[in-house]
């Protein structure tokens, strides 16, 4: 994928997302998602587009990990979510597992379930979801396996490679059908930009070398100077036995 073309596409006024300019933070956030997708994605344009649409919506177009309510610190975020079901301190660490990251991960159980993908104990250190690499990986892996939906269907079930998109239910991979129509618009904008930039290259298997059949080698008897080579061989053998008898 040509990243320069990708950024040019989303900078257009009519792109449907950023408009005519991007902040450095937005550029860094987009690059972080692209890098995480290269190692943890499924190689599909549609999945990448939906991941970026999700980040765009959940971060208020910032594209970098944020705390819930765009709070500047943990104390502020706790006050924002104090009356919500997940707003109470939970678990042995007494952390509040409010929304963090590009996907706004909430609830203790989800932090626990995503620790393996983060390669970090998110229950003990929930603020690690504010790390752009960890956040992007968790978002992508969660979209792929559908862990945030009861039926466990991943994004490919709603956005198949060959078939129509079910954008309303695709939102279920993150948060029921909340604001699904808005995110559908962002998805279409990002998908168009990705395709304009050449799409995600599919790695073709390396060509295998064609075995070369060895040419048959024919060994021709070499002539012996002064006579037939068979006669010469017989005489040489006879001479050996004659020496032994002597």
Describe this structure in words.
With 246 residues, this protein is mostly helical. It has one domain: Lysozyme (Orthogonal Bundle), CATH 1.10.530.10. A two-stranded antiparallel sheet has the order 1-2. The longest helix is centred in the N-terminal third of the chain and has 17 residues. The protein is elongated, with a radius of gyration of 33 Å.
Q: Could you tell me the strand content as a percent range?
A: under 5%
Write down how many β-strands occur, each being a DSSP E stretch of 2 or more residues: 2
CATH class: Mainly Alpha
Helix percent reads 40-55%
Mean pLDDT: 86
The end-to-end distance, rounded to whole angstroms, is 88 Å
Please describe the topology of this protein.
Layout lengths: L2 H9 L12 H17 L4 H14 L7 E2 L6 H7 L19 E2 L6 H6 L1 H4 L13 H14 L21 H4 L1 H4 L4 H17 L32 H17 L1
Antiparallel strand pairs: 1-2
Helix pairs in contact: 1-10, 2-7, 3-7, 3-10
Name its key features.
246 residues, 2% strand, Lysozyme, mainly alpha
Briefly summarize what is shown:
This protein is 46% helix and 2% strand.
């Amino acid at each position: 994928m040509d990243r320069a073309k990708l950024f040019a596409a989303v900078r257009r006024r009519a792109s449907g997302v950023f408009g005519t300019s991007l902040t450095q933070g937005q550029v860094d956030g987009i690059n972080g998602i692209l890098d995480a997708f290269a190692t943890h994605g499924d190689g599909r344009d549609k999945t990448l587009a939906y991941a970026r649409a999700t980040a765009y919506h959940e971060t208020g177009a910032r594209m970098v990990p944020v705390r819930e309510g765009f709070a500047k610190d943990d104390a502020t975020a706790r006050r924002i979510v104090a009356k919500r079901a997940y707003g109470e301190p939970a678990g042995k660490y007494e952390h509040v597992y409010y929304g963090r990251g590009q996907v706004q991960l909430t609830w203790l159980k989800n932090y626990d379930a995503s620790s393996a993908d983060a390669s970090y104990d998110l229950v003990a250190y929930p603020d690690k979801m504010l790390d752009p690499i960890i956040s992007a990986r968790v978002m992508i892996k969660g979209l792929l396996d559908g862990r945030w939906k009861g039926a466990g269907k991943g994004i490919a079930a709603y956005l198949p490679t060959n078939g129509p998109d079910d954008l309303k239910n695709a939102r279920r991979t993150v948060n029921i059908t909340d604001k699904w129509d808005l995110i559908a618009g962002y998805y279409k904008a990002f998908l168009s930009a990705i395709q304009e930039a050449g799409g995600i290259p599919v790695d073709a298997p390396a060509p295998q070398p064609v075995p070369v059949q060895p040419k048959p080698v024919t060994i021709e008897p070499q002539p012996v100077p002064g006579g037939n080579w068979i006669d010469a061989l017989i005489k040489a053998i006879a001479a050996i036995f004659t020496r032994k008898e002597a």
